[in-house]
């Protein structure tokens, strides 16, 4: 049995469904609050899909794990492992990282705990968790593992797009006038996550122009390890095929994976979201 285990949260998605060391990964479930209800069951989250846009309705929101749940998981793993590496979604998107920090300070177990803010979400987070998992399987020490993951964070990139601007307003990413005006004019803003924070790039008029911007973004890189495309059901299939063909022709030796939008991304960005995550 490995002396190191990995904890991540349920916002993470993985480029590959199976990989070495996945059994050593443990998850903190993040409930979603919507319409006065707290949903923490995966099938239920899928059924209760958010609407394409929001005005004044109560927005869906991702809740951090409770102090009790964090402590219970740490206590359970403390019985089996000497060291625990925790990788969370960006602390700029949700207070999960801060809540775990608080729980660690009051934790009385003997296990050594390493807490890392991934500064990303979804597949970007999954890239890092998978890398950590493979490293644990290879026998790397916990201290070396932490250093390797921190060195890898700047090499995870993304470009994100959504026409559902009121979701970004409710998530605290943009202000309300910007959201209202952009939705009124049917604009599709493009963002990147830099150091875990949203940085706007530009706005386009439709998904096709957004996909072209994704291609321009990819052209900036020479050495890629993996390309992952995450999208909701509102993205036209023709545009998805267009991007996939571009990646296969431009980066024939780089794996390309396609993933459905999960409930957590939908709660932040709305069901019209699409995002490109790449590992350099």
Q: Judging by the overall fold, what is the CATH architecture of the largest domain?
A: 3-Layer(aba) Sandwich
Mean pLDDT: 89
Radius of gyration from the alpha-carbon trace, in angstroms: 19 Å
* Low-pLDDT windows of residues: none
The class by helix and strand makeup works out as: alpha/beta
Overall 3D form: globular
Indicate how many domains the architecture comprises: 2
Q: What amount of the residues lies in strands?
A: 15-25%
* CATH topology call of the largest domain: Rossmann fold
How many strands, which pairing sense, and closed or not: the largest β-sheet? 6 strands, mixed
Percentage of helical residues? 25-40%
CATH class of the largest domain: Alpha Beta
| Distance from first to last alpha carbon | 31 Å
Notes on the structure:
- The chain is α/β, with parallel strands linked by helices.
- The chain has two domains: 4-152, Rossmann fold (3-Layer(aba) Sandwich); 156-279, 2-Layer Sandwich (Hypothetical Protein Tm841, Chain: A,domain 3).
- It has helices at residues 42-47, 67-78, 96-105, 122-137, 142-152, 165-170, 176-184, 207-218, 237-250, 263-269, and strands at 4-9, 25-28, 32-34, 37-39, 61-62, 83-88, 112-117, 156-161, 188-194, 197-204, 226-231, 256-260, 274-279.
- The strands form three sheets. It has a six-stranded mixed beta sheet with strand order 10-9-8-13-11-12, with helices on both faces.
- Helix 4 (122-137) packs antiparallel against helix 5 (142-152).
- The longest helix is centred in the middle third of the chain and has 16 residues, at 122-137.
- It is globular.
- The model has no long low-confidence stretch (mean pLDDT 89).
């Amino acid at each position: 049995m490995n002396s190191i285990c990995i904890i991540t949260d349920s916002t993470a998605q993985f480029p590959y469904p199976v990989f070495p060391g996945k059994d050593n990964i443990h998850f903190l479930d993040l409930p979603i609050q919507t319409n006065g209800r707290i949903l923490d069951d995966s099938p239920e989250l899928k059924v209760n899909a958010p609407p394409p846009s929001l005005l004044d309705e109560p927005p869906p929101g991702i809740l951090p794990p409770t102090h009790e749940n964090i402590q219970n998981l740490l206590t359970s793993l403390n019985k089996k492992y000497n060291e625990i590496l925790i990788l969370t979604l960006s602390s700029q998107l949700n207070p999960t990282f801060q809540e775990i920090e608080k729980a660690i300070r009051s934790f009385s177990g003997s296990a050594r705990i390493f807490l890392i803010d991934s500064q990303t979400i979804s597949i970007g987070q999954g890239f890092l968790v998978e890398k950590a998992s493979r490293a644990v399987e290879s026998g790397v020490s916990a201290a070396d593992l932490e250093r390797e993951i921190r060195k890898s964070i700047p090499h995870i990139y993304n470009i994100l797009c959504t026409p559902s601007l009121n979701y970004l307003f409710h998530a605290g990413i943009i202000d309300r006038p910007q959201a209202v005006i952009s939705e009124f004019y049917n604009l599709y803003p493009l963002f990147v996550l830099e150091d875990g924070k949203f940085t706007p790039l530009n706005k386009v008029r439709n998904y096709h122009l957004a996909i072209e911007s994704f291609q321009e973004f990819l052209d900036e890189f020479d050495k890629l390890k993996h390309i992952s495309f995450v999208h909701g059901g509102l993205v036209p299939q023709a545009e998805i095929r267009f991007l996939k063909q571009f990646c296969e022709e431009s980066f024939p030796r780089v794996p390309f994976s396609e993933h459905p939008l999960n409930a957590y991304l939908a709660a932040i960005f709305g069901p019209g979201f699409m995002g490109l995550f790449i590992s350099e």
